[in-house]
Amino acid sequence: MILALCAALSVQGATIKTDVCIYGESASGVVAAIQSARLGKKTLLISKNNHVGGLATSGLTATDINRQDQVGGIAAEFYGRIWDHYIQPEVWRNQTREEFMLSSRKRTFTGKNDDREIQWVYESGVAERIMKEMLAEAGVEVLYNAPLDLENGASMRGGKIRSINLLNGTTVKAKMFIDCSYEGDLMAAAGVSHIIGRESTEQYGENLAGIRNFNFIATSPYLNGTDGELIPYVAPEMYGELGDGDHRTQAYCYRVTLTDDAENMIPIEKPENYNPALYEIVIRRFAAEPELQLKNIITFTPMPNRKTDTNHLDFFGASTGYAEGDYATRARMEQEHKDYAVGMLYCLGHDERVPEHIRQEMLRWGWPKDEFVDNGGFPHQIYVREARRMVGEMVMTQHNVQKSNRIPVEHSVGIGTYMMDCHYVSYVAGDGGVIIEGGIFTNTRPYAIDYYALTPKKAECQNLLVPVCLSASHVAYTTIRMEPTYMVLGQSAAVAAVQAIDGRCAVQDVDYPALRAKLEELGQFLTPSDKKVKHTQRVER
């Protein structure tokens, strides 16, 4: 029934003409498509699978939204619709709304805001239904199961994308394109400059850049405890000097949803490719630190109806090569990450070296029968925390987002608020133990994101905007890379695309004062505030 709400296209091998083409079914893509259509443009949203919403509808439901007062526009409208759903007593099947909000208070910045009537903790299936309703209401056409042809993805002429080619043989012609994929595939196909990995400290003068020793675990890196074969995915030695740049990316994972409701549970079974050696470091931590609790290994953030957003199933060292990989490579790596995640949960519940109290706690949990029903209760989207990053007209760096001595930007199209948060990159053998390399966990304060970080260099492409794999250093991206921020930037990109069409100009030549005025009219917040703003009215929806 939900699929019928969207104008889903089936045009394999055809040529589609539209005004604005959004490639990428992420939440940013959904919001961009809704905004473009609401402004009267014929709009096509292309999903590489049969879903919309990306991570926001695939397990990442404890939204990273520490400053909800700085999130406006369609993003706030979406979270308002989440509120409208959960205010209904009948949707609470096995707990009350009050019980849930009490359980989530310390894990999700209270989970809701009564003054604005928005809620940002939810179930994945609920969020995807709401997004599909919003797409249908706006009149967006959605093309499902249509990944880009990575070998011949974009046809260029005169510094513009004239058409893009999908793997199923479909060609899409549009006046403007917005790449909202997590991987930046359309941007790369158009020949736009980009980077994968980390810059050195010297490149932008960032003291948090490059290779970073973050922590140390006093355990042998060897499987047998003394020498010989290393534990899988432990690098044999440091691969550069501290502060050097490299091609590595922070760890990926799946944000799995679990439940302790026995009537809605599928048991966690041993994966076919189970390899207990992958969890050797975790097992040894239990022996060395008997006070460890399950929450010290993985985190169960409460979600409605006795479900969780489960984080920190990070597969250190296993994400390198994903961004530039072909679809077969990505599918293999996604399966490896799935096996790792399921194997970790199985290990914590069954390996006899795990303390009994932790095993018993883990065995309370299983897959929810009513989530991801087309995938056995497992999320459909891997958490690509960072892939390609554009090198555009302007590059956001640590200096634009850091807490003190900040260099403010001049052309705000959205506000970021989250801390600089880079999950670990690798385990490395060294110093008689295991070094954890790559983490950044540093507070910031609200900062503006510049419009020209969404635009390629004009000489490279004039009708493309990139709100997800935007132009930012690795350090700056660690705070920008949050789903609400992607949503805000997706809306701003759509408004800019429409103004570029109407003004018959390149995206780099859009009149910024007019863009800002329109964004503010649409409810975007563009001026960062250190003090929390008390809103006085319900979010429009």
User: What structural category characterises the helix and strand content?
Assistant: alpha/beta
CATH overall fold name of the domain at 14-195 and 446-521: FAD/NAD(P)-binding domain
SS strand fraction:
15-25%
| Overall mean confidence score, pLDDT | 95
Q: Share of helix among residues?
A: 25-40%
Q: Can you count the beta strands? A: 24
C-alpha-based Rg, rounded: 23 Å
Largest sheet report: 8 strands, mixed
* Name given to the CATH architecture of the domain at 14-195 and 446-521: 3-Layer(bba) Sandwich
Number of helices: 14
User: Could you state the CATH homologous superfamily of the domain at 14-195 and 446-521?
Assistant: FAD/NAD(P)-binding domain
Task: Note the topology.
Layout: H1 2-5, E1 7-9, E2 15-23, H2 27-38, E3 43-46, H3 73-86, H4 97-104, E4 112-113, E5 118-119, H5 124-138, E6 141-143, E7 154-157, E8 160-165, E9 171-179, H6 185-189, E10 194-196, H7 201-204, E11 213-217, E12 234-235, E13 265-266, H8 280-288, E14 299-303, E15 307-311, H9 327-350, H10 356-362, E16 367-368, E17 388-390, H11 398-401, E18 412-416, E19 420-422, E20 426-430, E21 433-437, E22 440-442, E23 447-450, E24 464-465, H12 474-480, H13 483-503, H14 512-521
Parallel strand pairs: 1-6, 2-3, 2-9, 3-6, 9-24, 12-20
Antiparallel strand pairs: 4-5, 7-8, 8-9, 10-17, 11-21, 13-16, 14-15, 18-23, 19-22, 20-21
Helix pairs in contact: 2-5, 2-13, 3-5, 9-10
